[in-house]
Amino acid sequence: xxxxxxxxxxxxxxxxxxxxxxxxxxxxxxxxxxxxxxxxxxxxxxxxxxxxxxxxxxxxxxxxxxxxxxxxxxxxxxxxxxxxxxxxxxxxxxxxxxxxxxxxxxxxxxxxxxxxxxxxxxxxxxxxxxxxxxxxxxxxxxxxxxxxxxxxxxxxxxxxxxxxxxxxxxxxxxxxxxxxxxxxxxxxxxxxxxxxxxxxxxxxxxxxxxxxxxxxxxxxxxxxxxxxxxxxxxxxxxxxxxxxxxxxxxxxxxxxxxxxxxxxxxxxxxxxxx
Length: 274
Prior knowledge:
single chain; alpha/beta
């Protein structure tokens, strides 16, 4: 079944959890789409996990279009949501609409996601009024990491919590079809989820949101070292990849690959030339 913004909202009404996972390229999108996941997010996290950038602030529109188009080509059933990168929607409403349109036309996104609350309401309204579905993002918004002083839980004070709650309601009123809540206390995420009619998708926001999202490299154990508190590893693909490639290298060095079954044989007439 094809997932759309309408089917996601129906899932919230039925109390059926929404699943979202990141994707950044054609082959992985094709594989993930076969799992039945509801949404594939082409996140600006690609800058860190695919391109080696230190943060998401360095990601460009060209990066998002390139990877978004690859994911869209590999996806049939999941809803493809593409992040609007840093400064692609901040300068003016007109530029925000133009860049959202580029992601729809050139990256073949089916929805866009942008970070922020009261400061981006005019952009959200204008993009939605242009016929482009918008997913909001509140809490720890990685594009503002330097303003936050690092990757920190947001909404830990009454003032912060009240602002996030107000922003959630305002984004719904502005026309957002769903909302990502990142690194906020579970109780705050639950209140927002109960208070607004649009789906909430959590990452480090507890179990009470309408759905969950993870970066697939985190979920599948593709990186060693630091692991955020909110990440659970559902596989150890990184180890499997390393072991598989080491086995390949060993087989090549031992002259055990390729074997006859992996080789082509010419005609008898051609064989006489060898």
